[in-house]
């Protein structure tokens, strides 16, 4: 069953922030890009896991971003949030496992 979509007005605000974040990322400003993407995350209504797409997509992206920044503690936090967004508390979903494994590899945890 598909989750409901966030209101179009909020989705538009999120998308605008994500466009800014993508431009910052493309310019090499990963930390700034991440900060703007976190603003988009904050716009997702609670409970974030109830909504389609944004919670899953953003949390998975944050796992990769924090791994790229070498921030193990934040990466681990977002691995757990991502698993929650994918309704996968036991980390059995192949996508969750792939993201977590890639992050562990980047952080030297394998």
Keywords:
single chain; 110 residues; mainly alpha; 5 helices; flat
What secondary-structure arrangement, pairings included, does this model have?
Layout: H1 8-26, H2 30-43, H3 54-68, H4 72-85, H5 94-106
Helix pairs in contact: 1-2, 2-3, 3-4, 3-5, 4-5
Radius of gyration: 14 Å
Largest sheet: none
- Output the number of helix runs: 5
Distance between the termini: 35 Å
Question: How confident is the prediction overall: mean pLDDT?
Answer: 96
- The run of helices and strands is HHHHH
What's the count of strands? 0
Which ranges are low-confidence, i.e. pLDDT below 50, for 5 or more consecutive residues? none
Helix content: 55-70%
Structural class: mainly alpha
Strand content: under 5%
Task: Walk me through the structure.
- By secondary structure, the chain is mainly alpha-helical.
- Helix content is 68%, strand content 0%.
- The protein has five helices and no strands.
- The protein has helices spanning 8-26, 30-43, 54-68, 72-85, 94-106.
- Helix 2 runs antiparallel to helix 3 (54-68) and helix 3 packs antiparallel against helix 4 (72-85).
- The longest helix has 19 residues, at 8-26.
In brief, what are we looking at here?
The chain is mainly alpha-helical and 110 residues long.
């Amino acid at each position: 069953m598909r989750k409901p979509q966030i209101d179009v007005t909020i989705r538009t605000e999120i998308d605008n922030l994500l466009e800014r974040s993508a431009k910052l990322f493309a310019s090499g400003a990963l930390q700034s890009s991440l900060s703007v993407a976190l603003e988009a995350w904050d716009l997702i209504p609670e409970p974030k896991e109830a909504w389609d797409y944004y919670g899953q997509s953003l949390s998975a992206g944050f796992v990769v971003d924090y791994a790229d920044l070498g921030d193990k503690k934040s990466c681990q936090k977002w691995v757990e949030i991502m698993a929650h967004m994918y309704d996968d508390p036991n980390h059995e979903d192949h996508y969750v496992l792939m993201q977590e494994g890639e992050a562990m590899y980047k952080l030297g945890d394998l």
